[in-house]
Amino acid sequence: IADFLQSDTFGQVCQRLWGYFGRRYMTVRCQSQIEEKLRRVIAYAPSLQILTLDLRGNGIGASGVQPLVALKDAPSLHTLTLDLRGNPIAHITDIGYLAVVKEALHRLNLDFRGNSIGASGAQALVALK
């Protein structure tokens, strides 16, 4: 059941049951207004434990991860999955924003497929470990 609870299916199959579980599991697709949506997610679901953010192909660039700092205010969040595929992240110089969020997490999953992060970006990602 734990795998089912973390899937996209759970939130769509039964909204009432999802509510009973305290809105702990959420998947959000962000095309724009990322910071505003994250603040709403945190306010709407203060007991949120697992969050998947689908940010693929929206052109956020390296500094576009800055709004993710708002997630440090989600007290129960322990697992964050970021899908950053197909964004123009050539040099991840602002990866420090992710480091701020990572400190509060047990697990951080990143998907950078389709990005040319280069050597400096790879070093920044290694520093997150």
UniProtKB/TrEMBL annotation:
Name of the protein: Uncharacterized protein
Organism: Eutreptiella gymnastica
